[in-house]
Design goal:
By secondary structure, this protein is of the alpha+beta class. The chain is about 40% helix and about 25% strand. The protein has 3 helices and 8 strands; from the N terminus they run E-H-H-E-E-E-E-E-E-H-E. Strands 1-2-3-4 form a 4-stranded antiparallel β-sheet, covered by helices on one side. Strands 7-6-5-8 form a 4-stranded mixed β-sheet, covered by helices on one side. Strand 5 and strand 6 form a beta hairpin. The longest helix is centred in the N-terminal third of the chain and has 27 residues. The radius of gyration is 21 Å and the shape is elongated.
Length: about 160
């Protein structure tokens, strides 16, 4: 089985958009630093000033993170491992086939039940239905190759 990469959100591969995101991130951080320096000199440090500086700095770092391509949510399935990035800010999780006890497949999520007793939940988007089905097909193939029990759970509303 070859490696298969599936993005879990909209992918913007436009280089101009990424450059604008990084530039806007630097502008936000520069404005936050300017406000900090300007307002410390005037000795008017209010709570709202600190909140705005923290917000601008955080938003600026997030824009830079996104512009550099580090915030892309994805799942990558190979013959014996699954690489999973569920959120934009947390690191990628690597799950080997030997760690998985069971996989539960729901219409809008996957639950990897680990032999250690832990669970790793991947929630799908309702927008990208075609990608969700392709991921489920590859997960079924992954489970078949690695002899992992898999349960397809149908939820009724």
């Amino acid at each position: 089985m070859d490696k298969k990469y599936f993005p879990l959100s909209s992918v913007e591969n436009n280089r101009v958009v990424k450059i604008v995101q990084v530039a806007f991130g630097f502008v936000c951080i520069a404005v936050a630093v300017f406000w900090l320096i300007f307002n410390i000199r005037s000795m008017k440090t209010y709570g709202t000033l600190w909140i705005s500086i923290i917000f601008l700095s955080g938003f600026g770092f997030y824009q830079i993170w996104v512009g550099l391509g580090r915030a892309t949510r994805f799942i990558e399935i190979s013959s014996d491992t699954i690489r999973l990035k569920k959120t934009a800010v947390f690191p990628t999780v690597v799950i080997s086939a030997g760690e998985i006890q069971k996989i539960e497949v729901f219409p809008f999520n996957l639950i990897f039940i680990l032999k250690t007793g832990g669970k790793n939940v991947l929630r799908f988007s309702s927008t990208y239905h075609e990608t969700n089905e392709k991921v489920k097909e590859k997960i079924f193939r992954f489970a078949e190759i690695n002899s992992i029990s898999i349960e397809n759970v149908e939820e009724k509303l």
